[in-house]
Structure formats: C-alpha cells, structure tokens
Amino acid sequence: MPSASTSNGPRYPSNLTPVPSDLHPDCAVKDHIALWQPHPDSISVHAWADSTKASYGAGLLVYHVFCDKNNIADSDRAPVNSSLISHFILSLAGCYAGQMIQGYMYSIRAWHTLNGLPWFLHKDHIAVMLKGAAKLAPPSAKQD
C-alpha cells in the first residue's frame, strides 16, 4: 500500500500508513489527537501542549495501524476492550521500550477521555502487562 504523502514526501513510513477513514483522516501527527476522534468538536484538545498532542498522535497512529492490520473495525476500536489492548501490547512487546508502550497506552486513554468514552480497563491489569512488556524490550531500548 502506498504511504500517504505531502508536498515534502511521504507523511508516514510505509509500514505505518493507516487505512483512510472518516474517523482518522490524513493529517499531521500533532493533529491526530484532535482529528482522529468520533466527536471532533471538543474544546478539551486544547488542554495539551503541541508536543503532548504530537506524542499522543504518534501513539494513535501505531494503534490504528495495528487495528488496520488486524482487521479491527472502526466501531470496535473505541471504547477499547481488555482483549484488544492485550493484543496491542503483545504486538509491541519485544520491539519497543516499556516507556514507549506506556506512552502509547496514554495516547489511547487520552483519546477516550477527549471523546467522553468509557475506559473499562483495570489499572492493575494494564500495569502488569506494561511491566511484562518492559522486561521484553530489546536490549537497545532498555535503559540501565
């Protein structure tokens, strides 16, 4: 699949190009948190600094590409369920640093908060999964 592009070249790496959707339109990473949502008219998005929005947008990109690759319908992506998040974290474990995966989780939770969607995930369950994922991080991603 070709990557989305801008006048400056591809917007996303070819392995991180989401399938086009009205719920997550092609836009700059920093705009994902504001534009990739079921209810795009929210004042809450102004609560975050641009750097936070960019970080959260990157996490949403990874989440939506994961969902695309696993044929998860837009309607099943939010509110997220424990099984989907477990599979998402498992897909990242061993490839990314624990803090990066934790940041992606914050992105998904912020997206839910912004849209007034319930977050049904148990905090302790998420913490254990993130701890396990951190232990599986590749040596190059681990901090001493």
Annotation field: number of helices: 5
Number of strands: 2
Structural class: mainly alpha
Low-confidence blocks of residues: none
Largest β sheet strand count, sense and barrel closure: 2 strands, antiparallel
Tell me the strand percentage band. Answer: under 5%
Which strand order does the major sheet show?
1-2
Mean pLDDT: 85
Radius of gyration: 15 Å
Distance between the termini: 39 Å
Shape, principal axes of CA atoms: globular
Percent range of helical residues:
40-55%
Order of helices and strands: EEHHHHH
How would you sum up this structure, described in words?
This protein has helices at residues 32-35, 50-69, 82-92, 98-114, 123-135; strands at 5-6, 9-10. It has 144 residues and is mainly α. The protein has a two-stranded antiparallel sheet with strand order 1-2. The model has no long low-confidence stretch (mean pLDDT 85).
Task: Spell out the blueprint of helices and strands.
Blueprint: E1 5-6, E2 9-10, H1 32-35, H2 50-69, H3 82-92, H4 98-114, H5 123-135
Antiparallel strand pairs: 1-2
Helix pairs in contact: 2-4, 3-5, 4-5
Which keywords apply here?
144 residues; mainly alpha; 5 helices; 2 strands; 45% helix
Q: Quick recap of the structure?
A:
The chain has helices spanning 32-35, 50-69, 82-92, 98-114, 123-135; strands at 5-6, 9-10. With 144 residues, it is mainly α.
